[in-house]
Specification:
The chain is built from six helices and eight strands, in the order H-E-E-E-H-E-H-E-H-E-E-H-E-H. The protein is α/β, with parallel strands linked by helices. It has a single domain, classed as 3-Layer(aba) Sandwich (Rossmann fold).
């Protein structure tokens, strides 16, 4: 749902954006990773430790072993891990799991040379009541921290990518955690809810002109709102429906790896 141009008071009341709110400094508390009560604002605490040099991990897709409804790590077979590499956090659509979305994007991720951690929501889909907060945020943080401990990640090249409900969650957590994510890539998102915001990530929206679930007009409206909040937004229209568009996936990953430069 997209609202017409809201007033500052309306923005703060609806939680669509908090550009007017100061970012609250929070001290990372490693022991709190995974505790939903510590994620009432949706701020992720996991960070890359530049001094950490993990042994080279196996080049295969594998679960992280964090929960029965798990996250999956994908490392391209020919990716050079001697230097820090880009990372994409992937968030699936409603009724799916981490493996479902990973199977749609792993080939293009390998072509682009990025590591992917695909995370499962705690329920059947992502809970955006009040923003990207609580149990989903806590589990995402655990998954990111596990990846940071296993792979040398470039802290300047971390993106969040989502499809449908996962796209909505990607937009929202990207706004809340703009000091962590350089790029936010959303396929067929439906809304965003961000109780606070920080940083200036780049936004990429892939929108189908035949999407009957989240219409092209709805997504163009979200793009205009994001631009009004001061974000750089690129909209990729395509002729399909409610899907991960292959051309958009390739373009968005290429732009992400290149630092926002169009291919």
């Amino acid at each position: 749902m997209i609202l017409s141009r809201p007033s500052r008071r309306a923005l703060l009341a609806t939680g669509l954006s908090a550009m007017a709110l100061p970012a609250l400094a929070q001290t990372p508390v490693p022991s709190a990773l995974g505790d939903p009560a510590r994620y009432a604002a949706g701020r992720l605490r996991a960070r890359v430790d530049p001094s950490h040099s993990p042994p080279e991990p196996a080049r295969l897709t594998r679960p992280l072993g964090l929960d029965a409804r798990d996250a999956y790590l994908f490392i391209p077979a020919d990716l050079d891990l001697s230097q820090p590499v880009p990372l994409v956090l992937a968030l699936h659509g409603a009724g799916q799991g981490a493996a479902d979305l990973l199977g749609q994007i792993d080939r293009e991720a390998a072509r682009a040379g990025v590591v992917v951690v695909s995370v499962s929501s705690r329920g059947a889909t992502w809970n955006l009541e009040g923003g990207p907060v609580g149990a989903d945020a806590a589990f995402i943080d655990r998954a990111l921290q596990a990846v940071f401990q296993q792979v040398r990640i470039d802290p300047a090249r971390i993106a969040v990518l989502g499809m449908s409900d996962g796209g909505s969650y990607a937009l929202s957590t990207g706004m809340v955690n703009g000091n962590l994510f350089a790029d936010v890539i959303a396929f067929a998102p439906m809304r965003f809810v961000a109780p606070t915001s920080q940083g200036r990530p780049r936004f990429y929206l892939s929108s189908g002109r035949r999407d009957g679930i989240s219409t092209y007009g709805n997504q163009r409206g979200m793009a205009r709102q994001l631009e009004g909040f001061g974000y750089a937004v690129h909209v990729h229209p395509h002729g399909g429906g409610h899907v991960v568009d292959r051309d958009g996936l390739r373009e968005s990953l290429t732009r992400f790896v290149a630092g926002g430069v169009a291919p």
